[in-house]
Amino acid sequence: MRVEESITRSGEFFTLANPAKKYFGTLSISDGGLINVEIYSDSAEFIKYDEPQLGRLIGKVERGYVTLEGCTFQKMGFGHGLPARSVIVATQALLGKGFEEENPLYAEYFFSVDCLDEWLMRPGMKITYGDRHNQATLTFDKPEPLSFLLHDGTQVSLDFNVTTPTSQSYPETSIFQKAFFSLRAPEPQSIEFYRSLSHKITRLMSFLVGYSLNIHSVHGVAISAHRNQPGQLIEIYYPSMHLNPFRRLRSDEMMLSFKSIAERFGQLLANWVESYDVLTPALHHFFAVQDASHKYQDTRFLAMAQGLETFHRRTAPSETQMEPSDFQAMVTRILKSCGEEDANWLEGRLIYGNELTLLKRLNQLIAPFQELFGTKRDCAYIVRKTVETRNYFTHFDKRLEAKALNGSKLVYVIYRLRVLFIFNILFHLGFTTDEIIRLGDQPYLKRMRQVGKL
Questions:
Q1: What confidence tens digit (pLDDT) does each residue in 396-440 have?
Q2: Are 372 and 427 in contact (CB under 8 A)?
């Protein structure tokens, strides 16, 4: 996660097993959600070679309590009677409370994503200009929140934090508006439930924007063990696997703005969350290319070819070359005609014999959107060259080298495979073919369809 301002707080830290024994230290949370505590102590009670895992630590620090989960020694300090420095890292920091219960529940969860305001484009500020060039009137109305319902009944809202001047300020004043997501399940849920859901929504935003975004400003309303007491707002921090460079994008630089899909967004969101686990293996390949994780064109190409093949396999698992019963009967006949030694070898070769070829999968994926890729001949070229180039880059057989693409022609096919993947994701999530064809003329997608040359 992105941490906009690093946090440093000093105080005393202890375990629930021995709350009387406290150690002075400093908590630091830096960009990327990296959490560590520096402890200075001349005691070895916290520091044991055979027990590097501390589990949960509670801190009584500046501005309140903090709960640190998954604590492990990164560095053990042994001062032999003198104060020594130890470094402890944590997998999660909950600022605002020292939790005693193992799995506290949360009634609501809030987070924001990079460029969310630019994607939404719902400003509450409006400027009206008068007759004279130096005459203007500024008005502000907080935009109404938008609410959507997931298949499991969880409510997802897009709302806005707003700060307006409390008094007249001269010579300048400011109004602040910041969009955020709010999640509320039908029943209080664990933090793992909300973290998983917020991750899926962040990946959806990265898909729609066309650039990998970071989650930030995460909070949750923790339910008290005594349900009759009000919940408590907790600041939540955790390390990211990847921290993407922050880049402020304009709405016209994004693949699909909220305005372009507003009527479908609720359905898109619900279906994305529902399908995410099925789509994940294919999405990993797509995002690796979108994020420029692959530095060479051949690996980008292979990722997109494999991503499309995986997508088709995961979303159409019943598609086969023959009826499964007919295929099994044919395999049985063939194996009976072989000797036992040959049959064992041949059976291993035939396990995947009923799978669709990459050629057939690509033809099925491109057919509904042919007009966006040119003529039938253009589509056939993309499919054929994808198969031939994939085969060469997989096996590096000299006999296939002459048919494989390189240079501008390879770039041409890579971008069309990326667009084809996007179209099929949208189709899988509920968009009609006609809607996708209209979206294909959005500036971002249109530029992608024009990259490279034959």
A1: 988 889 999 999 999 999 999 999 999 999 999 999 999 999 999
A2: no
Q: What is the tens place of the pLDDT at every residue in 15-58?
A: 888 888 888 999 999 999 999 999 887 665 555 555 667 889 99
> What span, in angstroms and rounded, lies between the C-alpha atoms of 336 and 359?
31
Global pTM value: 0.89
Query: What does each C-alpha distance from 362 to 107, 227, 237, 311, 406 come to in angstroms?
Result: 45, 55, 42, 10, 20
**Distance between CA atoms of residues 87 and 78, nearest Å:** 12
Taking alpha carbons only, the member of 237, 179, 234 closest to residue 64 is 234
CA distance 75 to 88: 7
Cα angle, residue 167 at apex, residues 162 and 171 outer, rounded to 5°: 100
248: burial class by Cβ within 10 Å (0-12, 13-18, 19+)? exposed
| Structure tokens given for 431 | 């968009």
Closest among 307, 260, 302, 288 to 421, alpha carbons compared: 307
* CA–CA dist 60, 381 (Å, integer): 66
